[in-house]
Structures are given as C-alpha cells and as structure tokens.
C-alpha cells in the first residue's frame, strides 16, 4: 500500500518534521512492514509563467514552432524568457508551467538553455506528461483549464502538489482495512497516540449519506448458488449525480496523489472513484446512468454467458462468477471489473454510483479464474468494511458535485444484509497465558477500544465486539494478539528455550543431511522446487499413478502435488539454460506425496485458535493427510569436466547418475544393487533400477530424447531419484570397519564371455560368491562386443584383488580363488574364459 504523506496528514496529526522513514517506523511498531519510499522526480526551478506573445515560424522539416515570450517575474523583479515551443494549444495571456535551466523533469530530463530552430530557448513550457501528471500529451498544461490563476514566478511544484512523496508498507492478507488511507491513519494513531479524524465521518460526507432519497433505484440480489454457503453480496448502496461535465480535467493534486498511490489518471469520474477507494478502502464503480436498462440485479452467471470488460476483453463466465446485471445482461464482474457497455465517457452527464460489499472467497476465485487482479478485487479478497459503503458513495457524490459541476439527485438505494459482529469473550489472564506478559485491565480495554472494539466488563472477562472493518477478529487469540500489538511487542520478553540434555538431530535427520552433503561435495547445487504440477507434467513423469489434487491451488494450471522430484529439477534446468548456464548438476532433498488409489484426502474444518483437538479429531486430521516420503533426486547435463588447457571436456551421462547413487549408498551405509530397468520418462535402454535387497528404491537413467527435445533440453540429460526414507530404513545402524592388513595384495584380471542379455552385475555377483573370503575387491573394467567375440555374446573383464588376513598369498592361491568364481559363472550363465 502506497501512502502519500500529504493525504495521510489530512486524517491524523503527523508532526511537520516527521519524514517518511519516521512514519514507517511508527507503523512497524504496530505490525506493518516497511517497503519503500517514493519521492518526486522533479527538481530545480519550475515556476508559473504567463505567455506575453508568440510568433508562429514554419520550419523546413514541415513543423511549425512558436517563438514565445514568457513572463516568469517574481518578487517584483521583471524576468522575460524567450522559449521555443512545439505545441499550439495555448493563447496569449495563458498561465503555464515553465521549467527553467537547471530544472530536472521525470526521466530524468535536465533542462538547459540551448540553441534550437534559430533561437536560444531559455527553458521549456511543460506538458502534463512531462511533469508526470498523466499520459496525455496533446499540448502544454494550461493552468486556467484546471481552475488555477496563480501569480507568475510562483513555485509550480508546490502549486501542483508535485513536492509530495509517498511511503509504502506491506499489508498482510488478514488486515485488509489497512489498504486505505483511513486504515493507515488509524494505525499511525494507534502507534503514536496522534489524533485521528475518520474520513468516513466528515460533516459533508455524513450530511450527504443521511440525505433521504425520494426515488428508489431498483436493486435486487438473487444468489441461488452461494460459494461455500455464503451469499455473494451483503451490501449495495447507490446514489445518482446528474448534470456533470465528465470532460473536465482532474485536478493536479488528485492526479499527483493517485500517481503516488500507484494509479494513473484516466478521467475525472474514474479518478474520483479510485481516489475514494484509496481514501476509505471501499471499491467504487460508476455507471453511465443513461446506458443502463432498467434496474440492477446481482446474480451468478449462467453457463456460457459472456461479458466484455473495461479492458476490452470478452470473457466466458463461470457459474460461480458473481455479476452485476441490468435488463440487457451482464454489465460488470462484481468486485473485479466493470463492463464496457455502461462505461463512463466524456459525453456522460449522469452517473450512478455503486458502493457494494461482496464475499471475499467469491471475488478471489473470480479474479484468479479470469487472471484479472484489480485494486478492487485485492481489497474485497481481504475483506471490506460493510458499513462504509454509505460514506463512500456520499464521498464520491461530494467530489462529483464539487469537481464535475454535478447535482446530487434524490435517487438511490440502500441494501444491507451483513450480520452484526459477534461479541467475543476475553477471559482475564488469557493474554498472559499465551504471551507470557501480564497486561493491566486498562491496557486491555484501551487497546481494544483503540482498534474500534466496543468493550463491556463481565464477571471474570471482558466482552469485546469487533468493529465492522475487522472481520479477522473472531476469537480470543486474535484479540490477545491485538492487545500485544497495540501495547507494543517490546513488552514481550525474548527468552531462549533451553534444550534438554541428550537431545539433537534424529538419525533420519542426520542421514538426510549427509545425503545432501555428499551431493553438494560432488559439485551439485541444491535447489528447492515448488511441489505443484500440471496434469501434463504429472503424466510425463508418473504415468497414470494417482496424485493429490488441491482444492484451492495457487495456480489453477498446476493443481496436483508431485509424486516425484524430477519435474522440479527439470524446470530449474530449463530456467538456467534460458539464462546461458549450460553445464548443470542439480539436486533436491524433499518430500513427495504418494496417495493410495481411490482414497479421498481432506481433513474437514480445522480446530479454531489455540484449542487442542481431542484424540479422535487428531486421528481424523492425520487420516486426511496423504502418505509423504522423503526423496533425493539429482540431474546432470552439459559438461561434467569443462574444456581446459590440456584437458578435453567430459560430458555428463548415465554414469554420473549411477556414481551419485553409489556415493549416497556409501554415505548412508546401505548396500545397493543396480540392474537394467525402465521408467516412463527415461530412455528404455539407458535406465537402471536401484535395489536394496529385493526392494526397488530408485531409478537412474537418461531422459527420453523426445522428452528432452520437447522441453528444450540437451539430448543427454542424466537423472537420479531415490526413496531416501527407504534407504535410511535399510541402512546399517552400526557401521563396522575392516582393519588394515599389512600383507600384500595379489591382483589378477578375468575376462568372461557370456550371452549379451546377461546383466554384468549378475556375473560379478557370481564371481564374488565363488571366489570366497580371499577376494577383497572386484570391479568391472570392460564390456566388449565385436571382432573376436561371437555374435550375441559379450566379453566382460573384471579386475580382481585378493589378500590374505594372516599370510602372503601365493599366485596359485589367488588363481584357485579366481577359478572358483569362474566355476559359479559357468554354472549359472554358461560363461567361458576369453583367450
């Protein structure tokens, strides 16, 4: 929320010497986070001038410029400047804004005396756009057009309010009332004790709001399909102003304030509705009364119904969408954006003002469904004061009469169905029990009254009725938080809990950290990806396996929770590749969601506040949570070793994924077995399944080339994913070490010819089993298929290392052990020694 300081000062006593940073500091004390300060981009001498005379001078390039004599005299000292101007919308005698040499306009655009078109132009006559007052550039700004007739030489920056500045604070979703000058002023008052003046209760606004309407404008709320049982519209106030001149310019002070608040000027009527929205927090919509057909009906959309909104987009509506309609059909998406059919234009003379209150859930869903976030929807999503609608409609009417030359008509309506706030019992001592601080009765009452509550004393408690603008106050804990906030968070002591002796990380936590450390030490970078997937991505990586579908996803296109970590790694790789990073090793340690087929997950309503649910409710809540498992996954692409002087590059491949799996098995003290396998997203001939015993705990392989091409990835992308929980469960609790033996080792090589479809890992296990205890280590060092080996077979070469625990082995003993291993391979696979 951006807050112009001059606007804030109208409703709360801010000291004259207070800076934006001082105001932000005061608001931080009551829980509003500071964001930024936005200052004007104007500096230097920018003054009021009067055009004394000018001469039109055609140029060779087809343009006609005006050589002007402009009076900028001040303090009795005559000062006439010759200025070249390309605009033609001004007359002799007009008062204008002159940027003198040394000034800097937004851009930045410094002004200096310079020779142009045969003259030395001693400054510049400025347009509204050049001053930052709007986007229009039809000519220079004539002060008489905006109702000003100041003296020459006067500081135009102060005259037009361009010396104002704004600060920005972050407003949390539960405090929608702070998305207004009214709310921020109240919070500043709560923080500093400065006097607060409610803009909703000024004499003029109150008088207009109380003015009776003798002619009722027909309004009907017809909501047959409320979202979550909540009716979409609880308040609808209308007023009518006739005889306005919609073509009148918006005053400079209003344009400046809206710009500082983050909104551009559009037209007088629209600017007024935006101005009141920022001032009071109540979104307002204005209709051209002459374009309306009959009265207004608030209803849900019919299937297939369409509307063209103010952004000229035609939208197909959903049956949950709440609409504003007349007899011609939809004329607005309630609480989100108005329709083009009743848009106010320069020809508008009568305006129907709408100030309504809509259900937050309904508005949030409509805004997300149509990807149409607006300042109005942002406020309705967080909750708008239902009782401020009368004041907001009256404030708009006041400004349309004052600035647009209109007349308040005796036409309107007032519909209210919002329930009265429910009193909340705050027991004595409850705040101290959860805050650890004792608050006096006066502090509790004073804090609650400061935020707008009506407070009554009952036996052993206070009865607090929340104000209409605080829908977030619903129970004892929320009231306790408000007391702590208003009295000051500095009253709450900072006490570090003392950990009981003997506690620390669990075995699983230690091993998860060890897994991450191993991969990071190997050069991979850890990432954390969002766990949300689209339907298409889920099918790519998990085929038809069941997935948890979110009831209210952050992104409607990604409603599923992941069953695998691979999509997040792939998305991160694509993002990095798009930024020129072509050699990547990424990994993630995180949870996946593995629902059982046919089971519907969901826990129903959650416990309120700090109330502890009973055992049956806890069991129900836990039963509504899908099974979750910790996984570790890694992805490799590009060059593992980059090209260097004397070193050729080495590309990442399946070997990197398998090596990572082996390193993880060593770190977690769990033996693994790697066999040929398959995966829906991986190359069928370059995929391995990873076993612990007879249980599959993961997969390593290269992505399908077609999938890599579809995702704009290199052809070879190696990936690994392991069930970390399963590895930890099967890992050895105690790791034994082998003593170092001082006797020398005997090494021999063994080449066996076996059928090509026999896995090398099976042959290796057979050799190990037959060789016995003397075999210390064995590695596959070659897999040969070609000349000298029969078709349909392959030659596997193993490097063997033998060592005795109590003696130096003879060559014969090593050979006998090797041949014993060969014998098992011959028996199982028909292996033969390769000559």
Describe the model:
The protein has 835 residues and is α+β, with helices and mostly antiparallel strands. The chain has 6 domains: 2-40 and 165-192, Phenylalanyl-tRNA Synthetase, Chain B, domain 1 (2-Layer Sandwich), CATH 3.30.56.10; 46-159, OB fold (Dihydrolipoamide Acetyltransferase, E2P) (Beta Barrel); 199-416, 3-Layer(bba) Sandwich (Phenylalanyl-tRNA Synthetase, Chain B, domain 3); 424-490, 2-Layer Sandwich (Phenylalanyl-tRNA Synthetase, Chain B, domain 1); 507-602 and 621-730, BirA Bifunctional Protein, domain 2 (2-Layer Sandwich), CATH 3.30.930.10; 746-833, 2-Layer Sandwich (Alpha-Beta Plaits). The strands form 12 sheets. The chain has a 7-stranded mixed β-sheet, with helices on both faces. Strand 40 and strand 41 form a beta hairpin. The longest helix has 19 residues, at 811-829. The protein starts with a strand and ends with a strand. The model has no long low-confidence stretch (mean pLDDT 91).
What would a concise description of this structure say?
Helix content is 27%, strand content 27%.
Give the secondary structure arrangement, pairings included:
Elements (H helix, E strand, L loop, with lengths): L1 E3 H5 L10 H9 L4 E6 L7 E13 L5 E8 L8 E6 L9 E5 L4 E2 L3 E2 L3 E3 L2 E3 L2 E2 L30 H4 L6 E5 L10 H12 L10 H8 L4 E2 L2 E4 L10 E10 L9 H10 L6 H13 L3 E5 L7 E5 L5 E3 L5 E3 L5 E5 L2 E5 L3 E2 L12 E8 L1 H10 L5 H8 L6 H16 L2 E10 L7 E4 L2 H6 L5 H10 L3 E5 L2 E5 L10 H12 L19 H15 L3 E2 L5 E2 L1 H8 L17 E2 L4 H13 L5 E10 L21 H9 L4 E10 L1 E3 L8 E2 L2 H14 L5 E4 L5 E11 L2 E9 L1 H6 L6 E7 H7 L15 E10 L4 H12 L3 E10 L8 E10 L8 H19 L2 E2 L2
Parallel strand pairs: 13-24, 14-17, 28-31
Antiparallel strand pairs: 1-12, 2-12, 3-4, 3-6, 4-5, 6-11, 7-8, 9-10, 15-23, 15-24, 16-23, 17-20, 18-19, 20-21, 21-22, 25-27, 26-27, 29-30, 31-32, 32-38, 33-34, 35-36, 36-37, 37-38, 39-41, 39-42, 40-41
Helix pairs in contact: 5-10, 6-7, 7-10, 8-9, 12-13, 14-18, 21-22
């Amino acid at each position: 929320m951006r807050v112009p300081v001059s606007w804030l000062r109208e409703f709360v006593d801010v000291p004259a010497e207070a800076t934006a940073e001082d105001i932000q500091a005061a608001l931080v004390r009551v829980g509003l986070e500071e964001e930024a300060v936005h200052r004007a981009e104007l500096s230097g001498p920018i003054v009021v001038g009067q055009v004394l005379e000018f001469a039109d001078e055609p140029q060779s390039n087809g343009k006609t410029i005006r050589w002007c004599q402009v009076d900028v005299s001040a303090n009795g000292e005559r000062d006439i400047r010759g200025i070249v101007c390309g605009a033609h919308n001004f007359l002799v005698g007009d008062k204008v804004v002159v940027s003198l040499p040394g000034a800097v306009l937004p851009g930045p655009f410094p002004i200096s005396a310079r020779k142009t078109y045969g003259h030395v132009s001693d400054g510049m006559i400025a347009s509204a756009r050049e001053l930052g007052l709007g986007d229009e550039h039809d000519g220079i700004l004539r002060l008489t057009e905006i109702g000003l007739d100041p003296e020459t030489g006067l500081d135009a920056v102060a005259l037009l309010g361009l010396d104002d500045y704004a600060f920005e604070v972050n407003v949390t979703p539960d405090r929608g009332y702070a998305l207004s000058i009214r709310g921020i002023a109240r919070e500043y008052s709560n923080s500093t004790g400065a006097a607060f003046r409610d803009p909703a209760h000024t004499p003029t606004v109150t008088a207009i709001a109380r003015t009776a309407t003798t002619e009722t404008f027909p309004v009907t709320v017809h909501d047959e399909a409320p979202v979550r049982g909540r009716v979409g519209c609880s308040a609808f106030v209308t007023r009518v102003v006739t005889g306005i001149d919609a073509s009148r310019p918006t005053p400079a002070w209003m344009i400046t304030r809206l710009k500082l608040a983050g909104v551009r000027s559009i037209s007088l009527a629209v600017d007024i509705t935006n101005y009141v929205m920022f001032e009071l927090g109540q979104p307002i919509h204005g209709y051209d009364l002459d374009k309306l057909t009959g009265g207004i009906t608030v209803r849900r959309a019919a299937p297939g119904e369409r509307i063209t909104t103010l952004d000229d987009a035609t939208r197909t509506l959903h049956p949950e969408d709440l609409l504003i309609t007349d007899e011609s059909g939809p004329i607005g998406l309630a609480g989100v954006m108005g329709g083009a059919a009743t848009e106010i234009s320069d020809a508008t003379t009568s305006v129907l003002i709408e100030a309504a209150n809509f259900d937050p859930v309904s508005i949030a869903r409509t805004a997300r469904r149509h990807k149409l976030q607006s300042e109005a929807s942002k406020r309705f999503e967080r909750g708008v004061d239902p009782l401020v609608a009368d004041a907001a409609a009256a404030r708009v009417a006041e400004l349309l009469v004052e600035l647009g030359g209109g007349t308040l008509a005796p036409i309107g309506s007032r519909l209210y169905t919002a329930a009265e706030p429910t009193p909340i019992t705050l027991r004595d001592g409850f705040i101290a029990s959860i805050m650890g601080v004792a608050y006096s009765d006066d502090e509790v009452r004073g804090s609650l009254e400061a935020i707008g509550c009506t407070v009554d004393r009952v036996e052993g408690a206070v009865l607090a009725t929340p104000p209409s603008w605080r829908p977030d106050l619903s129970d004892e804990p929320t009231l306790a938080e408000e007391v702590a906030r208003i009295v000051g968070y500095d009253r709450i002591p900072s006490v570090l809990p003392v950990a009981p002796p003997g506690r620390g990380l669990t075995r699983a936590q230690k091993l998860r950290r060890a897994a991450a450390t191993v991969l990071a030490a190997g050069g991979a970078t850890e990432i954390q990806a969002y766990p949300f997937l689209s339907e298409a991505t889920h099918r790519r990586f998990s085929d038809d396996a069941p997935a948890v579908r979110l009831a209210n996803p952050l992104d409607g296109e990604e409603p599923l929770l992941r069953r695998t970590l691979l999509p997040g790694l792939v998305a991160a790789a694509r993002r990095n590749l798009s930024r020129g990073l072509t050699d990547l090793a990424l990994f993630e340690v995180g949870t996946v969601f593995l629902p059982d087929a046919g089971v519907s997950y969901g826990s129903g309503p959650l416990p309120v506040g700090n109330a502890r649910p009973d055992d049956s409710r806890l069991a129900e809540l836990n039963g509504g949570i899908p099974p979750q498992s910790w996984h570790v996954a890694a992805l490799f692409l590009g060059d593992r070793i980059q090209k260097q002087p004397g070193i050729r590059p080495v590309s990442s491949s399946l070997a990197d994924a398998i090596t990572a799996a082996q390193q993880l098995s060593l770190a977690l003290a769990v033996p693994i077995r790697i066999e040929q396998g398959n995966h829906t997203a991986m190359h069928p001939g370059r995929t391995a399944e990873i076993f612990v015993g007879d249980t599959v705990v993961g997969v390593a392989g290269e992505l399908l080339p077609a999938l890599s091409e579809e995702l704009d990835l290199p052809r070879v992308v190696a990936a690994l994913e392991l069930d970390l929980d399963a590895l930890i469960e099967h890992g050895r609790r105690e790791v034994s070490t082998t003593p170092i033996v001082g006797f020398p080792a005997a090494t021999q090589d063994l080449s066996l010819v076996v059928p090509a479809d026999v896995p090398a890992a099976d042959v290796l296990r057979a050799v190990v089993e037959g060789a016995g205890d003397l075999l210390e280590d064995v590695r596959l060092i070659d897999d040969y298929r070609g000349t000298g080996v029969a078709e349909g077979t392959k030659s596997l070469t193993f490097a063997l290392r033998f060592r005795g625990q109590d003696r130096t082995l003879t060559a014969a003993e090593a050979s006998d052990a090797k041949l014993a291993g060969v014998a098992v391979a011959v028996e199982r696979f028909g292996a033969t020694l390769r000559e």
